[in-house]
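ok trying this again, last paste got cut off
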Amino acid sequence: MCAKVLVVEDEEAISHLLAYNLEKEGFSVATCADGDDALTAVDEEKPDLVLMDWMLPNVSGVELCRRMRMGAETREIPVILLTARGEEEDRVRGLDVGADDYVTKPFSMSELVARVRAVLRRTAPALAGDVASFADLVLDRQNCRVRRGKRDVHLGPTEFRLLDVLLQRPGRVYSREQLLDRVWGQDVYVEIRTVDVHIGRLRKALNRGGDRDPIRTVRATGYALDETYAG
């Protein structure tokens, strides 16, 4: 599963350039042009990283970053600020409100992509490459293969995507609604209980042969991969 990047940039030419180059590098990209729309998009798109301009209409990038850090669902989403401001005081201010990195215009696309990958390696390492692992589980995105220890695990497409999401942040509890959005998409109507059915299938495939269950059920909330459960 590729990382989802939200680009918040009011200059249309720059927004298109960023989206084109990030998609070419394998990222999934959504865009918006002002701070108010960005607040909505963060909630709806649930991006893995936000790349935003400092100077935005309505709500500035710095203020948007501050508000994200105050929200329970958004405080962990990494943020890279883009700006023409190059003074040390401005950089410090951006980092003080919770930005993970700071890129000054003009910049090269290769540098920007490298910064995006570097931030993802720190915040969501499972999204930064083709292989994700946890305990004795290994998921190969490029070849669509899963192994547990020395055993191949055969999964259907939905179970593969579910495991991929859980592997991105082991220990994090994903609600059923979040799993629906990330695995099935926001434009598809699926009953909430469908998540439980596919988690059951995923468990059955992972736990053959007496292996310990790596998936923790959090009552009335959702699911997580948990070190204490893994074999």
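PB: full thing came through this time. Residues 136 and 149 are 5 Å apart (CA to CA).
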